[in-house]
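DATA SHEET
Item: assembly model
Revision: 1
Owner: S.N.
Input lines:
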Amino acid sequence: MTAGARLPAPLLEVQGLAKDFGGLAAVRGVDFAVRAGQIKALIGPNGAGKTTIFNLIAGALAPTRGRVLFEGIPLPVRRPHAVAARGIARTFQLVRLFGEMSVLETVLVGCHRRGRAGWAACALRTRAARQDEAELRLRAQTVLALLGLGARADQPAAALPYGEQRLVELGRALAAEPKLLLLDEPGAGLGRDEQARLAAIIRTIRDAGATVLLVDHHMDFVLGLSDEVVVLSYGEKLAEGRPEAVRTDPAVIGAYLGDEAA
Amino acid sequence: MSARERWVLLLAVGLAAAVVPWTVRSTYVLSALVFVALNGIAALALSLVMGFAGQVSLGQAAFYAIGAYVSGVLTASYGWNPWVAMAVAVAAGALTAFLVGLPIFRLSGLLLAMATLGFGIILYYVLVNWASVTGGPSGLTGIPPLAIGGVQLDSDRRMAWLAWGALLLVLGLAGNLVDSRVGRALRAIHGSEPAAEAAGVDTARYKLGVFAVAGGVTALAGALYAHYLKFINPSPFGFAFSIELVVMVVLGGVASLWGAVLGAALVVGLVEALRALLPLLTVSHGAAEYEIVVFGLLLMAFMIFLPGGLSALGRRAA
């Protein structure tokens, strides 16, 4: 980075975020920021609070303390669709598809907020509704092409191999054209080739202007992909920085990498 | 089904619905045709709620009753034009569903089913006890028939045309709705509510919306019923009818609009068959109790052997 260049303002700011489940403190006051155009990763052993932080950002859970700012404004709490409306899309740790829906339809649901046709227009299939639908379908097809799922469009999403189901979920999130994409363990259950393909797709998304925050515990996958990493352990931030720096951080090695090496 | 196939099917059934009442002389058969259409409309509405949005309602009879009573009272007691009264009845059904839905859609699954059941029971007792308006248990008489341009729709045959016309109209609109942005949002809620929310679907609003639409559509069937029979009392709108509607939807295949109509035809046919057969088999009266037993067994058999309903059978054959 050249001297004098100013860092862009953070897109997402997590401030003193904490979540207790009954007596268990799953997240204990975590601060970090994600700048626009970054790929940032939350890593840490199981139970470190990664997915809980995701659910707090996405509005699926209400924080016990702290808050999350997006573009400088606090995100709605316990109203995930309102968080989505701010320009945040997510995937889930365990793939969540829609019953018997086809791949194309699943991705079309992701386009939901881009459509305008209401109940009456849809029931009457008005000209405006048909035009709206055609635009959504074009957008969904573009996303499927990006993911290499074009040939699968009309197949039931749930009938695809697991790796492709994860891509369909990613497609559903991408279809919303989010400013911030939250990916919960995108590499889980994928083979090495599939992970490489996924990493290429995530970089493409970032290069197209989206910001990515992901949670994962595959170290190679995450460290190779991310611009910055936040390391969590037992609900607290252990370290934050560029992957090379974090990899050699003694605290991190002790708490996490050490465990895995053993 | 593609949009084109849907229209071809609608047109074919529409033609049949136009021709068949002409050729049938038996008022008994014509009246059965009317009831298939009316129940079909109500079952279709429930299918939107249950099969597409995945929310169970055990109180749909209440909206049928609201349609029948609002249109019945406005015409019989206040002399309104039946068409205007019917429009108000539809609005009343939708509005009631919306207001009832506001608190109860905080619930889901079994609790939601119980709340809708409770609503149905409460409304039934309102009809029985608010005698000054509803006529109480003895009912409301003097409801005028509908008329188009001076032609009274007071025969079974004319009513069969009207009821099937209404059914096909609702089928067409519902078919469009299901296969659209709104319909996908509803099906997404059924598939995974958290994922639908994450995709930006305001699930609470859509659940309330589909419940209100179904309330209005069910009230339409109820209003047609009132102007067909010209007499209403609370007894057909009890818990048993709510269950019958669920049976129709399940027999037809929950997430199938045409299935709901098939289910309605099957249930109406069965009820008539039982009414004819049971007196031959038993010494006492009380066919209604046996109906419930037969429906219970049928429901169990379908759940076990054909969970996709009749429409799944058709799909398998295709």
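QC remark: Chain B has one domain: 3-234.
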